[in-house]
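#structure-requests
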Amino acid sequence: MNNRCPKCNEKLSPFYMKENCPKCGVNIMYYNLEERLEDDARKAQKEVDAVNHFTGILKSSSIASPLLIVRLVLFFTPLASMCLPMYDDISLVTLIMGLVKGEIEIGSVMMPLVSMALVVVLSLAVIISSLFSSTKTGLIRNMIFSIINTVVFVVLGVIIGGMQIGWFVTLAIYIAEIIMHFVCDKKIKQSAE
């Protein structure tokens, strides 16, 4: 409370506990209550509209059509492809199990570990970016994240060497994601019209 009467602006003690102003007699608590409630209702409606707009963007970017749902599922498939041998005989499963059992030293598998960690981190960036595909710069942002993800993956694959089936499947998934960005962008624009 601001320690002033809302009607006459009389200064009140911070410890003044009575209902009515000592100068003008107005009920301090209920003065202009309808106007304050209407103002609160307008503020609440603005917040509800903002949340609805945000959820609308998320829906139209990720689950508005079966094609968008397929693209969303595609983003999670690199986790499955990393369970196949990625580099020589190293897969995500063998790497984790070897580290847990103490059969593999981190130093000996540092680059494959970094590569697989970047697949996870950069894939998350692509997923988050794709949730806002229906915005004005959605396609450009999606392409930037997907291309960076693919280039980093390819460069690390060339540096590490010994690429196996899991690496090639993951690369194919990344290329499919880039294609899906274009296809889904057309679908998003068509649904906006």
